[in-house]
Amino acid sequence: MSQPAAHLNLWKHRLGQVPESVWDQFDLETLVLAENDLTGIPPAIARLKRLRMLDLGHNTLREVPESLGDLDALSDFLYLHDNRLASLPDSLARLKRLRYLNISGNEFESLPECICAMHSLVELRASDNPLSTLPECVRQLTALRELHLRNTKLTRLPGAVGSLLQLRQIDLRGTPLDHLPSSLAKLPRLEKIDLRWVATLELPSWLADLESRGCLVYR
To answer: Which structural domains are found in the chain, ordered by start?
Structure first.
């Protein structure tokens, strides 16, 4: 008989720092450390080789350790939202199995290029950041179904988003967009594009073509 998955939920314990004993629980598959006033994560997190889900949201992290990239079993979720992150280590490019990443509510001015190497991503949330650019390498996220960019500083999207053939939803609410690439119109599975509270964009005529095939366009 297989062993049950090991879970540790320390949500909202106001720990200040993670107890050393956590890093000795080598069988952990899910670890929740959200809302603990954490300012740092030690490299010892790399010991948790079985982690599939990690929640570091709602802390005050300014960086995450390089060793986070050693968690190659991380496949389900990585929550880094609502911290003070402005960059991510290149080592996170090794998270090839990760399907969900949330970096919303941080201080990213550009999307870290290591994210482009996370080829299994199905959902990427990067809302509420001062993002002003998306790198062309986003074209590598060929499994992506949802892209959330609400309340960023993006004025335009790269034409590379037209390579995201699995994309179902894109959330651009509250952005200062002045241009949308026509390559969006060619996305075969796009079901929803949210442009509410975008006051700077002259809506392109091809949006009507999207609507005619059943895509919801929120203005």
So the answer is: 6-218 (3.80.10.10)
